[in-house]
Amino acid sequence: SAVISQKPSRDICQRGTSLTIQCQVDSQVTMMFWYRQQPGQSLTLIATANQGSEATYESGFVIDKFPISRPNLTFSTLTVSNMSPEDSSIYLCSVEDIVTGGSYEQYFGPGTRLTVT
Amino acid sequence: DAKTTQPPSMDCAEGRAANLPCNHSTISGNEYVYWYRQIHSQGPQYIIHGLKNNETNEMASLIITEDRKSSTLILPHATLRDTAVYYCIVEYGNKLVFGAGTILRVKS
Lengths: 117, 108
Fold this sequence. Notes:
The complex is a heterodimer of chains A (117) and B (108).
Chain A: E1 4-7, E2 10-13, E3 19-25, E4 31-37, E5 43-50, E6 56-57, E7 68-72, E8 75-80, E9 89-98, E10 104-108, E11 112-116
Parallel strand pairs in A: 2-11
Antiparallel strand pairs in A: 1-3, 3-8, 4-5, 4-9, 5-6, 7-8, 9-10, 9-11
Chain B: E1 9-13, E2 18-23, E3 33-38, E4 45-50, E5 55-56, E6 61-64, E7 70-75, E8 84-92, E9 95-96, E10 102-107
Parallel strand pairs in B: 1-10
Antiparallel strand pairs in B: 2-7, 3-4, 3-8, 5-6, 6-7, 8-9, 8-10
């Protein structure tokens, strides 16, 4: 299974600022995903990031607020822009690994815990 | 997209089998059922997935009904470390849509 690391693991930021979260994978993967988990809630998919193309955002998420980069097959970044306290969440990176038979498994990073004051 | 229904919480005695049910009555014929769990303050952990047949790995067994409208995740000998939120997910266009999950509490 893929090993995923995220930086920073946690941060406390002031409103109006931006934070860039890094996701590093130990193997080349085609599809990477960014999720948000608000306090006490389940995970919500923000966007899908494929190398060499624009990220695809889910309903309710826009590129201006959550710009994503995917420069190569092992790395991606998510920026949370112009932050407000409502952006306080855990942000998780995940990757897709194709397994025998055409199905896939998705592995998650440890998450970045963001608090906006 | 297929949605899933799970009980909000369950208790299980340590050493006993934990059977976690999931309903997915609107699942399509080529959609897989996935199970993940999330232990407090950690990223979700993949457990198992299946399409039609029952599946077993070192962590758990997955029993899918013949009509595929429901499934059960079985942890054969639950330990205190299995206390977590368990998510039953039906794949939707290569995406995993998480529901609320089941909080499993394993008690000694």
